[in-house]
Specification:
Mean pLDDT: 92
Shape: elongated
Number of strands: 0
GO biological process, one term: salicylic acid biosynthetic process
Structural class: mainly alpha
InterPro entries: Chorismate_II_sf (IPR036263), Chorismate_mutase-related (IPR051331), CM_bact (IPR010951), CM_dom_sf (IPR036979), CM_II_prokaryot (IPR002701)
CATH topology: Chorismate Mutase Domain, subunit A
Number of domains: 1
CATH superfamily: Chorismate mutase
Radius of gyration: 21 Å
EC number: 5.4.99.5
Protein name: Chorismate mutase
Bound molecules: the ligand C=C(O[C@@H]1C=C(C(=O)O)C=C[C@H]1O)C(=O)O
Pfam family, one: CM_2
Distance between the termini: 44 Å
Length: 115
């Protein structure tokens, strides 16, 4: 842990590197926690969209909306110095799961996430 006395047989430089690694990993864990909560919230919204679409006979996917979202996310990624290709891949991965849920909901499955 940061601030611990150096361990026997460990140089000060190694101990500093270990402290920095652990501090960075603590931030990574916090970021992963936030991502999981944000993803859960996104899926909560998309499940509701799925129920709405099923009720009114709307198609599970909306390719035009996706095209607009991809353009927007790619621009945001560039501004944020994140690889736009990666941002698009992430989006397509999530949307494929959303559409699978929507199809399950339309087929009469309870929450759409299984099957
Ligand atoms: C959530 C929707 O359904 C699908 C999923 C989308 C998404 O996860 O962002 C976007 C478009 C649709 O293909 C929607 O139509 O808004």
């Amino acid at each position: 842990m940061a601030g611990d006395p150096p361990r026997i047989g460990t140089s000060v430089a190694e101990q500093t590197a270990q402290d920095r690694l652990e501090a960075l990993r603590a931030s990574i864990d916090n970021i992963d926690t936030a991502l999981i909560h944000m993803l859960a919230e996104r899926f909560r919204c998309t499940q509701e969209v799925g129920r709405l679409k099923a009720e009114y006979g709307m198609p599970a996917s909306d390719p035009e909306r996706e095209t607009r979202q991809i353009a927007r996310l790619r621009a945001l990624a560039e501004d944020a110095h994140l690889d736009p290709e990666f941002a698009e891949k992430w989006f397509n991965f999530v949307v494929a799961e959303v559409i699978r849920h929507h199809r399950n909901i339309a087929d009469g499955s309870t929450d759409g996430s299984d099957g």
